Amino acid sequence: KEERFGVATECMGYDATIDALTSLPPPTSPSDTITITVKRIRKQPKINVKLQYPPYQNEPDVSIELFAGENLRRAMLTRGIKLNDKLAVRFDSGGNG
């Protein structure tokens, strides 16, 4: 009887996919066949962003690492970076346009 082992790798990053594939049991004989179906796999690039505050704030520069294509505003908020100053003049329409 043929034994089949499988592992789901859909929506995983590169490292998690490799970990999942290496978790499968090794072949037990030379006649064993391994079939891998790959939809899409690539290592997601990372970028470094240097945030600089205005000189009057006397804040040190901050460097954060982001995945390429990650939402910059959301990434800064999740890392605890304060974005909006209540006293700052707004240049957007506030949602009316």
Write the layout of secondary structure elements.
Blueprint: H1 14-22, E1 46-51, E2 62-67, H2 72-78
Description of the molecule:
The structure is a single chain. This protein has a two-stranded antiparallel sheet. The chain contains two helices and two strands; from the N terminus they run αββα. The model has no long low-confidence stretch (mean pLDDT 80). It has 97 residues and is an alpha+beta fold. The longest helix has 9 residues.
Share of helical residues: 10-25%
Instruction: Give the structural class.
Output: alpha+beta
Mean pLDDT: 80
- Distance from N terminus to C terminus (CA atoms, Å) equals 66 Å
| Lateral arrangement of strands in the main beta sheet | 1-2
Strand elements, count: 2
Q: Please tell me what the overall shape is.
A: rod-shaped
**How would a crystallographer describe the biggest sheet?**
2 strands, antiparallel
Instruction: Count up the helices.
Output: 2
Alpha-carbon Rg, integer: 24 Å
Helix/strand order: HEEH
Low-pLDDT stretches are none
Strand content: 5-15%
